[in-house]
Amino acid sequence: MNLLIDSFISAILLLKSLDAEVCAIVLVSLKVSSSSTLIASLIGIPAGFAIAFKEFRGKRITITILNTLLALPTVVIGLFVYAFISRRGIFGPLDLLYTQKAIIIGQVILIIPIVTTFTIAAISRIDDRYRKSAMTLGATTLQTAGVVFREARFGIMAAVIASFGRVIAEVGISMMLGGNAKGFTRTMTTAMALEYDKGEFVLAVALGVILLMISFTVNLFFNYLQGRARV
Amino acid sequence: MLFEIKNLTKVYGNRKVLDIPELRLEKGKVYGLLGPNGSGKTTLLEILSFLLPPTTGEIVYDARTVDFSEAFLQGLRREVVMVEQHPILFTTSVYKNVEFGLKVRKEPKARRKRMIHEVLDLVGMREFAEASAHKLSGGETQRVAIARALACSPKVILFDEPTSNVDIENQIAIEGILRDINIQKGISVIFTTHNRIQATKLSDRIIFLFNGKPASSIYENIFSGSISTDGNGNKYCLIHNKVRLAVRTDKTGYVKISVDPKMIKVFPAQDSSAGGHKLVGRVMQLTDEGDHVRALIDIGIPISVLLGREKYKQAPILTGERVELFFPLESVEIM
To answer: How much is the pLDDT for B276?
Structure first.
């Protein structure tokens, strides 16, 4: 119990002192996670929309594959991307390994299935009468899609929140592709793993508390957006 | 001519839900599409509103042969709007719901505002303009949906059972709106209903639909039952294990029957002169239908009987009264 209380106090003190190293770690984490969530959303939301909206051969198997990919371990993605961007890989000359871009690539692969499947679920749940109403009122296909998107906005927002939560909390990809380089690719989770290895439990747990606080703040923000959108 | 339909069918799987050899609808009229549940009314309405392509057949709308490509249909949908039986409003304000059709038609903002207020006035919902659409009652939702359709200034409005889910006050209001838009704005109206009185009251012409096909008149008193034979070799249909009606048929097992309300004879309960196949019931409701009086009689199942006005005057019956019903063999049709 003392460990947790001490850690919590340390976390508050660390935040209060605006420790430069901690700030750098938090910023790297936020930057990398936000970028990968944004990129995955830009790909996954339209993809989910298209899969939910269109009838095509292999639709069911596509959804099954996406559902399977939800369970993809971060280490597998780490290895897979490593094979491509390491010196001997086909993208080796781009010098991506142990950079923030490498982490973002891995994380995008990790969460595209989350954004896509959540979007499919959100769109599929929308009453078909919205589509018919928009169409009979003279909307084009794109405008009709806009109506359905608007009605599914809370579900889609949940997809984005879940994806952000997944990437800010993951450690495998950040460690394998980022390399945990201080000031460059050290994220909160890789820093926690390092502090744990060093036996600095209090600092490790303090970083964990900070991570949860950030997640909480981000969720509060999304919650606020949802509240405004409901009016 | 507004619509000219030839050899139209709609098939779902192995089931032909619509089969209309020919149908012509004129401009500026009110048409009532009358038929029981599952007769294909909604499917026909969705085809006429260009939301659903037919399986086969030809539709000519306003002298244009409809090719069911999306680009062509989008143009036609700007002229024909459908209001669903259970309309759904977008989760925003009433104002923005009505604005939708105007926005997609790129109407200028000032004109949009004027038109929205005009149609909300027409349906008596002006004071709800800023209300959240999903907080409205069923009747209010129906009225906003009508306003939303009217705002598009369509040439045709199709209503799917516009008053089936609203209270009497909203029903009167909606029926008034329906008449007004036809008379004042010259909009052609096609509506579905299974209420014969409403169809008679509101429409210039009634189209009867039964099992997906146009019928010369509506089938009434439709029941499911099983055919059996009694000790004397007479066949009868047992309905809901309560009522036995004599029938003439070669069919066996479960069937659907229809009883012609004009052919049923009604006598006071003590009168035993009629003979034949009689059943005793209680008069539940009497309705004035011009030349006829319609009586709803409970004989274990509700039976609708149509009595000629003159005959009714000679031997009136009262609600709550016990009566005997005689069903001639030819009044029961196996479907």
So the answer is: 53
To the nearest whole angstrom, how far is the Cα of B78 from the nearest Cα of chain A?
Answer: 5
SS3 A181: coil
Q: In this predicted model, which residue has the larger pLDDT, B48 or B288? A: B48
Tell whether B13 and B109 lie within a shared domain. Answer: yes
Between residues 113 and 152 of chain A, which touch chain B (CB distance below 8 Å)? 127, 129-130, 132-141, 143, 147, 150-151
Domain range for residue B247?
A: 222-334
Mean predicted confidence (pLDDT) in B83-102: 95
Quick one: pLDDT band at residue B334, thresholds 50, 70, 90? confident
Asked whether residue B177 falls in the same domain as residue B77, the answer is yes
The residue count of chain A comes to: 231
Looking at residue B254, its amino acid is Y
Does residue B218 have a pLDDT over 90? no
Interface of B to A at Cβ within 8 Å reads 49, 51, 70, 74, 77-78, 80-82, 84, 86-88, 90-91, 100-101, 104-105, 132, 148-149, 152
- Taking the C-alpha atoms of residue B185 and residue B154, their distance in angstroms, rounded to an integer, is 10
Residue of chain B with shortest Cα separation from A138: B78
- Residues B107, B174 within the same domain: yes
CA distance, residue B207 to nearest chain A CA (Å): 23
Count Cα neighbours of B55 within 13 Å in the Cβ-side half-sphere. 13
Judgement on whether residues B205 and B312 belong to the same structural domain of the protein: no
Amino acid letter, B28: G
The reply to whether B16 and B158 lie within a common domain is yes
Confidence of residue A7 (pLDDT cuts 50, 70, 90): confident
Q: What is the pLDDT of residues A163-194, one digit of tens each?
A: 999 999 999 999 999 999 988 999 999 999 99
Could you tell me if B141 and B164 lie in one domain?
yes
Q: Which of B77, B86, B132 sits opposite A138 (nearest CB)?
A: B77
In chain B, where does DSSP find H-type helix?
Answer: 41-48, 70-77, 94-104, 109-122, 138-150, 168-185, 196-202, 309-314
Q: Are residues B171 and B232 in the same domain?
A: no
**Where does a domain end: B215, B233, B261?**
B215
Q: Which residues from A are below 8 Å from B87, CB to CB?
A: 129, 133
Domains of chain A: 27-186 (1.10.3720.10)
